[in-house]
Design goal:
alpha+beta, 2 domains, 3 helices, two-stranded antiparallel sheet
């Protein structure tokens, strides 16, 4: 089964976008599932500013799916997982209140 977040059939108009290279201002085209791109002009590695790594933090297949996560994200992994867990608990509590 293909991850819905990586399946282009579910992509919207904002799934392909451009950013300027922070070093030389050359335009770099990103697809929403690109974790990083290398600038064609100066070879600077630019991380995708719109990438949502939420699923990759807990998925055992994340590296196969989207590649290696940026080091700074792995450093924050536990904190981000706790935030995600709290959000899920809050959503569950709200659902119970509506019932």
């Amino acid at each position: 089964m293909k991850c819905p977040g990586q399946d282009t059939r579910y992509w919207g108009a904002d799934s392909i976008f451009e950013v300027k290279c922070p070093e030389c201002s050359t335009i770099i085209e990103f697809f929403k599932d690109d974790t990083w791109r290398k600038c064609k002009k100066c070879s600077t590695v630019v991380h995708n500013p719109h990438m949502d790594f939420g699923c990759a933090l807990h998925c055992p297949y994340a590296e196969e799916c989207i590649g290696a996560l940026p080091e700074e994200l792995w450093e924050k992994r536990q904190e981000l997982l706790k935030e995600k867990e709290k959000a899920l608990e809050k959503k569950g509590a709200e659902s119970e209140e509506e019932s």
